[in-house]
Amino acid sequence: MAFSTKEKLLLMLSASSLLFGTTILTYRQTIYYNILNSQLVIEEGTAAYNAWVKTPIPVYTKFYFLDMINPAAFYNHEKPILEERGPYTFREDEMKVNLTWHNNGTISYRRMKFWYFEREMSVGPLTDEVTTINVPAVGAAEFGRGDLFMEWGISDMLSTMEAKIFIKKTIGELLFDGYEDLIMDMSKSLKVQDEEEDFYDFEEDSEDESIAPIEKFGWFYQRNGTSWSDGYLSMHTGAEEMSLLGNIASWNNRNRTEAFLGDCGTVRGSSDGLFPPGLASSTDSISIFSTDLCRPLHFTKSGMREVHGIPVEKFELAATNFANSTVCPENDCYNNNIPSGVQNVTQCKMESPVFVSRPHFHLADPFYKDQFQYGIEAKEGKHDSSFWVEPKSSIPVKVEMRLQLNVLLRKVEGIEYLFKNLPEVMFPVFWFESVATMPKNMAGSINILVMLPT
């Protein structure tokens, strides 16, 4: 049977269409991931780069301070009474600066952060006052611990100044504004014999951008509008190997910290919450490196959820993160030689008597709650942390971080003034929650992505 020219043309077109369709069906997953990868790699012009270099999602951080109600009775070994004050809410904007691209598929950078107080989302103004730990005094006592001559000198200094363990300060002073303190001024004359640094481990004439001179005390003093605090980070962009996307390569040009020994000192995990596509669906845990804790935080998969109609995997902060070695033997190198549930960060960034836990000692040993008459009440959900990740792209669509900063109070035998008979207490100073959720108007593009056949 002979075919006309028109029929031959139709047959050729049909065969071509069938071949094209078969090819698409065979390679559609490869095509899908090639398109996906091209937008997730961190390089100028991609969607991922634009979102990474300047965070488009609003981040709100709420601070809750634990107000000491009975400071005078504390010296008579009466258990503290605490009252939570907050939230004091800030909107946080972050951008990456000092970008340096490397031939090995990594990029080095610093984080610059800006914090804006949101009065309408807060219980009061930043002039509200709370009674809290006198950190410079406690820091001086810890610095002198074990050196009889230093202990005597610090005791004399504190006595001359009539220092107190608890002081009343405004929320603004305690956070970003800072306050002048005579102990810090006088401590500049105290030098470590070999290193000739003050006990806050800072030098005012340092040229290292990761170190800032400290003229005042404030938990976030000189962090607003600056880039020194988080240090110098290097991260895999995915350009050389997509499976490494987001992995931290080094911190302050090193692949380990001096805060912890062994495996605990290794710099590892995601640098900024970025993950290779598909990782969220193929793994039961993810890790984020925290520059404030000098260690990774581990999150374990807890099941599927939904955000603005997008199916997501929820990863919750693992219960073992702050466990001591009795509960979790592999945590031995974190030096958590205390009841379980509190992380020792005394050697992170600068030497200080600071420890980190979940808010209100959630999931920690009951020992901590028993230190107080009342004011500590952990609640599941309210005091948890989590990452909500779209499984195909591994794009985080919601992040909730809630942690508490504590100061360890304990006696120092050689410091007669204040510290000789001081009760030992892990004192909670404040806790915070930072929450970022992808706005509904941004969810459409993610929905289109996840609905594509693979």
Rg over C-alpha atoms, rounded to the nearest angstrom: 26 Å
- N- and C-termini, Cα separation: 42 Å
The residue fraction in helices comes out at 10-25%
Low-pLDDT parts are 18-32, 191-208
Q: What gross morphology would you assign?
A: globular
Question: Could you describe the largest sheet, including whether it forms a barrel?
Answer: 13 strands, antiparallel
Query: Tally of extended strands?
Result: 15
- Strand share of the residues? 25-35%
Q: What is the ordering of alpha helices and beta strands?
A: HHEHEEEHHEHHEEHEEEEEEEEH
Secondary-structure-derived class: alpha+beta
Number of helices: 9
Characterization of the model:
The strands form two sheets. Strands 1, 2, 3, 6, 7, 8, 9, 10, 11, 12, 13, 14 and 15 form a 13-stranded antiparallel beta sheet that branches. A two-stranded antiparallel sheet has the order 4-5. With 454 residues, it is an alpha+beta fold. It is globular and about 110 Å long.
